[in-house]
Amino acid sequence: MSETNPATAEVAAPHRYTAAVAAEIEARWQDFWDADGTYAAPNPKGDLAGDPGLVAKPKKYIMDMFPYPSGAGLHVGHPLGYIATDVFARFQRMTGHNVLHTLGFDAFGLPAEQHAVQTGEHPRVTTEAAINNMKSQLRRLGLGHDKRRSFATIDPDYYKWTQWIFVQIFNSWYDDEAKQARPISELVARFESGERAVPGGRSWDALSAAERADVLGEYRLAYASDAPVNWCPGLGTVLANEEVTADGRSERGNFPVFKAKLRQWNMRITAYADRLLDDLNELDWPEAIKLQQRNWIGRSEGARVDFPIDGEAITVFTTRQDTLFGATYMVLAPEHPLVEKFTPAAWPEGTHDVWTGGHATPAEAVAAYRAQAASKSDVERQAEAKDKTGVFTGAFATNPVNGEQIPVFIADYVLMGYGTGAIMAVPAHDARDFAFARAFEVPIRCVVEPSDDRGTDASTWDDAFVSYDAKIVNSHGEDVSLDGLGVTEAKARITEWLQGKGIGEGTVNFRLRDWLFSRQRYWGEPFPIVYDEDGIAHSLPESMLPLELPEVEDYSPRTFDPDDADTSPETPLSRNQDWVDVTLDLGDGRGPRPYRRETNTMPNWAGSCWYELRYLDPHNSEKLVDPEIEQYWMGPRAGQPHGGVDLYVGGAEHAVLHLLYARFWSKVLYDLGHISSPEPFHKLYNQGMIQAFVYRDSRGFPVPAAEIEERDGAFFHNGEQVKRELGKMGKSLKNAVTPEAICEEYGADTLRLYEMAMGPLDVSRPWDTRAVVGQYRLLQRLWRNVVDEATGEVTVTDAEPDETTLRALHKAIDGVRQDLEGLRFNTAIAKVTELNNHLTKVGAAVPRPVAESLVLLIAPLAPHIAEELWRKLGHTDSVVHQDFPVADPRYVVDETVTCVVQVKGKVKARLEVSPAISDDELEKVALADEKVVAALDGADIRKVIVRAPKLVNIVPA
User: Which domains can be identified in the chain, with CATH numbers?
Assistant: First the structure.
């Protein structure tokens, strides 16, 4: 069956599969699916309840990471994951599952707000337009989403429940004894009854309302506090650590970011650090993502130690308490709250000049250094810089193990966000401390015996000696000695001694910091919080939710000179006084009272922390989610002890942002009894990226990839030679290819097949428009194997297939089944292609059972053409819910396989043998072969190595 020349295709083959035919077929079947509700997944109850028989099937919940609806629309790189999950979902439906697969939109965010600032157009208008455009683009790809379940985070009916969850978190605390979140009312009851002591020693009744609020603020899982934050004047907002680049600039806009102390909302995610770590073990996630989360959480065991100073103490956390005798100075983070308290008015007598930084007083030195440190990011501060910076505070603390007075410095390599914001410096055994001590002429004392020949006089060393497998030396006091002990033994002994003295204890520390949850923006969820006349925060009752965004004249937060750190936020909402100042009856028995609303908004991560739950029960106005529905789709089950979505596909870039935050929210909701699954996503799969060639002119500027001419391996644009490099695909790089362009030229099924055939799903791959035609031709051959291109009639025959075709068919069925289950879509397409080519080469009409099986095999990958051919083959039901073919084992195994026989390592014979032949039988057959007998020529045999059924290696004596 030769292919027709495209130039004469319409005349010679009027019923050929062309782009125009594909477009008509695809649009018609998409309309049918929508009208028929083909992809509607029934719930066990509620307004989406469906056929009990379908609900009784095993369920499969498949999700894509929330897309943000960009005004630029999609390029062909965006749908890679969506097509993959669609193929997998279709396969699961055909293998007997009730499949929930849908897609919503993560629609709050800075791009729409920035557009509103520039144009005055409300962000909702541009966002909804972008959503509609994206829906249209995705529909054209034939994605099988349950559209009844779709929503956007900007829908008030959705963010009502985002606000409701915030209220639950605000009204909760973490009970360390029970290891779970509990209602804050239970903590209040314990304070009232005296069961739990009130911090500070006073009775609960003796505290004012404001004092009680302050106490509870130290326990709430959502709390406001004055804390160091990442302030970005150029954006007019604060940023989470994860939104700041390694060079201390904003991820969006590339503005400088400074450390500032502002009152902001936080989520106490640190309370869940242990559980976030431990539960990773039960998740089917890529090890690389698990490792990123483990490193971000950063669990370390050590001790807290108090260093007395002026009648109080500086507390440090250390993992090397065994080296306490080697601590010769202390370092505080520049932001540490005790710095000002212990800084004297004048330099102590004998202060080294290098310690003062050239300043007349300690206060001047500290102020100048703090300003310098504020301009650096946390990453910059912790980088291994050649020159260490810092300044002496003028204060001395006491080393508790030997009574020595040691100087207290501030230095930017110590962070307030890690540990206690203070370290004991043991310069002999820490590289950074060693460099600092050399720079500031501080004593260096060896307390861990070096394993090399440097000796124990640390003043002669060129660098620190760091070891966890050495003996402790020079570490003895009046009532404790660590000399001669190994590191582990020394840690245990000194920890016990510290606890006995009441000046320390063994403890666990985490790198994880509480989640900064405030943004000084307009286009985000308003906080359901109001403040009374005493400044006490109150959550709104559910009856007042959703609290919708008000109209404002100016959408932008006030921005400042990007380099001016001495500024503070002014939010768009704060300028709407009629909305900010309100009189409300919160139902707390106090009647109507004046309140002031919170004028920050939630970060764009808020809506994506729980959207997997809304897909389950999207129209429920009474509950977050019906418990029976949540249990059905996400509850724990065999192999999934923490429950969660069965397959979650998205980019690896969300490892410590969205994925960590969503896990935290799930655990709080689980603790409070709202859901049965403490983890949101059981299986995570990270798809690769579709890349594209970028062409740059002599100035380094991108030029349109579509206008490039290739000559003799070089590339030209308008006659000028340009450079080619592989990079991201995007509008700014002028190399974006739209899905519409490919659909117009080849059809959506071809685009789907090409993206799935490009390579393994989890590997990045370059886009090549010229290669798309290969999958187009596969579909044309498939069409020709069923439909006569001249008449449009079905050509299949009712004759029985021959054994060769049966073997080709069932091997394909077996292989494609395994590949689709394992998300190996490229190899599944290769096997379909191989079967289709076999049928093409035969040349005769294709037997009906083979044609139907072939259509079913390709249905998850190319659903439109599969639906059309299935209908042409005489079926009236959609192919979507047909049973996927099952291979007959008799035809999967080859009837014979070729066995290679070697003598002295050289091939002497090839035997056709049964795949089930035993080693002994194969050895006998090989030794009896006349070619092997001739090769041996009567020689004795020293060894016969048999690897049935494919190899026999004979070694003569």
Answer: 1-36+746-893 (1.10.730.10), 44-152+606-659+679-686 (3.40.50.620), 164-294+515-597 (no CATH), 300-510 (3.90.740.10), 690-727 (no CATH), 894-956 (3.10.20.590)
